[in-house]
Design brief:
This protein is of the alpha/beta class. It has 3 domains: about 5-200, Rossmann fold, CATH 3.40.50.300; about 210-260, no CATH class; about 270-334, no CATH class. Helix content is about 50%, strand content about 10%. The strands form 2 sheets. It has a 5-stranded parallel beta sheet with strand order 2-3-4-1-5. The chain has a 3-stranded antiparallel beta sheet with strand order 6-8-7. A hairpin with a 6-residue loop joins β7 (about 310-315) and β8 (about 320-325). The chain is globular, with a radius of gyration of 22 Å. The two termini are about 35 Å apart. The model is unreliable at about 15-30 (pLDDT under 50).
Length: about 325
């Protein structure tokens, strides 16, 4: 059951329920822990920046997050928006797109009415702050804008958004009722909005991946867990395997079949590998990580490998460590 289903289930059972039997699984979910941390900051009306590695499906994550924020307590009304269409746009087009997104905060339905036209950065900042004030004043509860693809926002808009939000917060020492969450690709640089908190969108844990793939007739939970480990918990890979399992009623039995079940993602991963292997140092580093063991971070090479979506940071004592993101990546190179 997802989070909303569990809440509805508890409501139907009444006050006799004291413990959610699925709670131990929730505590094992690494992506679930990251989601709870993000929800906490949003409910506190603190801006959040989420770094999302490749193939992590940030759009789907934000939709789930918006639902969780709406049904939880205290409730937060959210709008989700894709900022990728801003790539390559002229400044005036980017201004209007951003203003239109912020004009939807707190509305029950999407409005087609265009916001006031602006012709310079000063006008954009003024209009943006006015929209934040309108949402603060008119919304029936706290509200948030959840946007993914923020790496496509021009630097000037990020600066103006920061200035507008700081001015809005300064105007309400009693507390703000509107905040923003931006997701960016890992390695795309840093974004700061006010006192924003930056959180990494981690891959799924084994239990989360198994739940997302679902049970398959004729296979034990251990079989499904083995397939989940092969994907490394990368949401794009997990969803691709799950879709094939539901379509065919079975799971692939060997590495080659598993890779084939990933569909177009295999070509994307292979393309990422081919690009990094054009650099001798990164190619050698990737070869060192093929056995799946964690290695101390090497900034010069690991930054590029992480941007490519091939490695991930891991917890370790002492200096930071990284590891190959999924056995599926090693299988492509074997």
């Amino acid at each position: 059951m997802n989070r909303m289903q569990r809440m509805m289930h508890r409501d139907r059972l009444g006050d006799e329920v004291r413990f959610d039997p699925a709670q131990h699984q929730l505590e094992l979910g690494v992506r679930g822990r990251a989601a709870r941390r993000i929800r906490t900051h949003v409910r506190q009306m603190s801006p959040v920046v989420v770094r999302a590695p490749r193939w992590s499906h940030p759009a789907a994550f934000l939709e789930e997050l918006a639902l969780d924020l709406a049904v939880g307590l205290p409730g937060v009304g959210c709008r989700t928006v894709d900022l990728r269409p801003l790539k390559g746009r002229k400044p005036n087009e980017a201004w209007q797109f951003t203003l239109h997104a912020f004009s939807q905060i707190g509305r029950q339905e999407w409005s087609k009415k265009a916001p006031t036209m602006v012709v310079d950065r000063g006008g954009f900042r003024y209009a943006l702050q006015a929209l934040l004030e309108e949402a603060h004043r008119s919304a029936r509860h706290d509200v948030a804008l959840l946007a993914h693809g923020a790496e496509h926002l021009p630097v000037e808009i990020i600066e103006d958004l920061n200035d507008a939000w700081l001015a809005y917060r300064a105007a309400h020492p009693e507390g703000v009722r509107c905040t923003v969450l931006l997701t960016i690709s890992s390695g795309a640089g840093d974004i700061v909005i006010g006192d924003s908190t930056t959180i990494d969108l981690v891959d799924l844990g084994v239990s989360e991946s198994v739940a997302r793939i679902g049970l398959v007739d004729g296979l034990s939970g251990a079989d499904v867990a083995n397939v989940a480990r092969f994907t490394g918990g990368i949401p794009g890979l997990v969803d691709a395997v799950g879709a094939q399992a539901r379509l065919k009623g079975s799971l692939p039995e060997d590495d080659d079949s598993l890779l084939y079940s990933l569909g177009p993602l295999v070509d994307e991963i292979r393309g990422a590998v081919d690009i990094v292997q054009m650099d001798g140092a990164m190619a050698e580093r990737l070869d060192m990580l093929m056995d799946g063991r964690a290695q101390p971070l090497q900034v010069d090479t690991d930054t590029g490998l992480r941007m490519a979506g091939l490695i991930r940071p891991v917890r370790a004592h002492g200096q930071p460590h990284v590891t190959l993101r999924a056995p599926a990546i090693a299988a492509l190179l074997s």
